[in-house]
Amino acid sequence: FTLPVVVKAIRGNSGDDNHLITEPGDLVRLNPEEYYVAQPYIANRYDYRIIVADDNLVLAYKRVRTTDTHLNNITTGATREYVESLDPQLLALAIRAAKVLGRNLAGVDVLMGDDGRPYVLEVNFSYGVPQFGGEIFNDVYIKRLSDFFAKKAAK
């Protein structure tokens, strides 16, 4: 493989045990008892968490890195910005990624590369509850999630 790469523990979350490997010597930081997945490093400044339910957008937010790291995770200091109007192509990409993995409810992480292209990083079944103020959280997230579950219950 070609460096740099991002190496993530399979059981990791919130940016834990996630490493940017720029030279072979960086591999000594990895836990030999853990299983990892490697992916090419894609230069970027932000990503999106797109929460989808079947073919519908539940909520989308942009995560912008504020620290000198490769991580866009909120737990590592990134900011969270609510996205009121998501590009339809990004939504279609997130829905397709969730469907490929058989998920009807998922938080899809789409990284926007410095080359202007979107890259699906992961499809999270356990995507965490987004922390927004009352109006966005209650009127958007909870309402759309409630509608999703009501439709499922009615079937």
Report on this structure.
The longest helix is centred in the C-terminal third of the chain and has 21 residues. Strands 6-5-4-7-8 form a 5-stranded antiparallel sheet. A 3-stranded antiparallel sheet has the order 2-1-3, with no helix packed on it. It is an alpha+beta fold and 155 residues long. The model has no long low-confidence stretch (mean pLDDT 90).
Write a brief structural summary.
This protein is of the alpha+beta class and 155 residues long. The protein has helices at 88-100, 134-154, and strands at 5-9, 18-21, 36-40, 44-53, 56-64, 79-82, 105-113, 118-124.
Strand elements, count: 8
- Provide mean pLDDT, rounded: 90
Strand order of the largest sheet: 6-5-4-7-8
Q: Choose one word for the global shape.
A: globular
Spans with pLDDT under 50 lasting ≥5 residues?
Answer: none
> How does the major sheet shape up?
5 strands, antiparallel
Query: CA-to-CA gap between the ends?
Result: 48 Å
User: What Rg do the Cα atoms give?
Assistant: 17 Å
